Amino acid sequence: MTPLVGISCCSLQFGVFGMPKHAASDTYVRATDHLVGAVPVLIPANGDKADIDTLLRRLDGIILTGSRSNVHPSLYGGPPHAEGTSEDLMRDNVTLPLIRAAVAQRVPLLAICRGFQELNTALGGTLHQRLQDLPGRLDHSTPMQPSARIRQGKAHRVRITPGNWLHRLAGTGEIAVNSLHNQGIDRLAPRLVADAVAPDGTIEAVHVAGAAGFAVGVQWHPEYDFETDAVSRGIFELFGEALRERIDRTAAAAD
Hints:
This protein is an alpha/beta fold. The protein is built from seven helices and 13 strands.
């Protein structure tokens, strides 16, 4: 049976009249099609109208996507955002309860960039709003370059903790990653384990400690270069393996 993978959407306004739409980047759909071997299903940012239980009964895995918007500070006790900061409470009100339920129900979860920050928030952590404003931190924000190759290119290296899922995948203690974010983890959620850090100490990869299912997150964007980068490709392949293991386990339990 082909897995179904839910891909989180943002609530955005498009077109001349600013009509509200639900959107996710094609890069996540392509990675799901080409690497995960699953059918991508877009999860709308419909706030408290989202039926989390039905979604998780039907879906075999969840990808939490990146976005230009920030997780709302009220959800982790942070100060109000600076004027002009993009927010998306409709998305927050779907993804945070979805994360908690997916972890509890052993539904494989891959959290990327904003999704990584949502994972930390949903499980009780806090966020920095603008890493580039903090003393001693790198500027992790998106390079304002028209060239996608430059925007999405490797920006810095991360040091991987020996023995974890990422270390086993990469086969090395250090890899280069892209960097396109303002927010970052401040206080790590109690259930999360840091698996990689940037040179400035910013946490870049995590897993949920004690989770019965696959539940990991990365701060960078592996969907941008999975065709050329072995680690990026491997992250999606691991996620795909977790989906099929869950399907097999569910089928065996039903026999």
